[in-house]
Amino acid sequence: MSATESTLPSQNGNDSGLAAKDPPKRRRALLLVTLLFLAAGLVWLLLWWFVLSLREKTDNAYVGGNQVAISAQVPGTVVAILTDDTQRVEAGQVLVKLDSTDADVRLRQARSALAQAVRQVRQQTSSASGADAQVVSTRLELKKSEADLQRRLPLIAEQAESPEIVQHLRDGVEQARAAVAAAEAQAAAAHASIEGTEIATNPAVEQARANFRAAWVAAQRNAIYAPVSGYVAQRSVQLGNSVQPGQQLMTVVPLHDLWIDANFKENQLRHIRIGQPAKIVTDVYGSGAEYHGKVIGLGAGTGSVFSLLPAQNATGNWIKVVQRVPVRIALDNKDLDQHPLRIGLSTEVTVDITDDKGPVLAPNSTQQPAAETTVYEQMASKADAEAEQIIQANLNGGRSEK
């Protein structure tokens, strides 16, 4: 027997010993793997129960905002463009100027008409005062004629006065009465156009004031103002363009008070309510900038309903597709100040649905405007102030220097 052969039994004995020890190791390994899977499943269950089930998340969400279209209010030719795309403008800033030659002529005519109306009413007031004085004068004449007649009547009984003279006195009294009646009628006619009003509130002056106000505003509209503060986009107007009222020239986008339109699937809307907090992450900044907001409303319908060609499911050619409903989320302006956004940017929205007791439909309107501007009110108030200056200048006997 060789040395090699003498060693074989001992090696087989070792192999059988190892084989006897392998099953427990495999069982322990299998048990360990099983425990790991169970632990992972438990962690996932706890994560879903306490976190994921209390969140609704979508990446079909975009930044929304107001797009204020700037258009002409009067026809004209563009002579100046004072801003351009990407530039910031403030509310009340002039964006575009139109040729104001014709408007200036009409404004001068309206200014002169207002001054003339004030002077005419002043003249009518003076004429009415003169008519009142004439009434007083004719009444004195009537009183004098009646007194003369009364003095002469006793003389007729004594035949100390001729009847012709007395008749002449009677005729004089009648003429005086007719003169009084004519003077009173003339005074009434003079007072008809001014009675019950001051010069500044006379209907003729008010009409001239309104015409001046319209001409003043029309002249100012040759300068096109920004109604809100924001950034210019989509400028299409060019020098020399002949523009018409309502023609869009550019757009101003306020990058404050933005919102998110998050399009959730219909099966995600079960627990979404108005007032729930939301966290937003944008693609432009990534996870380094987290925005905070809250749900302020749910859309009244799905996107397909408001499309240009809505699906007609009643035809029978229908395939069920999961619909999405836009949910509007207001953003915190403090976050926007730190990390400005642009409308249309992609975002990822996570809504906390822990508290699902809030309303699904928006409450009654609070009558508060969604947006407003005072630019045009200021324009009208300036027109009224200048009209008042013209009235006062001509009311006091002077003249407007404008």
Automatic annotation (TrEMBL):
**Region Disordered: start-end pairs:** 1-20
A GO BP term here is: response to antibiotic
Keywords assigned by UniProt, alphabetized: Cell inner membrane, Cell membrane, Coiled coil, Membrane, Transmembrane, Transmembrane helix, Transport
Subcellular location(s) per record: Cell inner membrane
* Pfam families with a match to the protein in the record: Beta-barrel_AAEA (PF25963), HH_EMRA (PF25885)
Q: Which family does it belong to?
A: Belongs to the membrane fusion protein (MFP) (TC 8.A.1) family.
**Annotated protein name in UniProt:** HlyD family efflux transporter periplasmic adaptor subunit
Q: What is the lineage of its organism?
A: Bacteria, Pseudomonadati, Pseudomonadota, Gammaproteobacteria, Lysobacterales
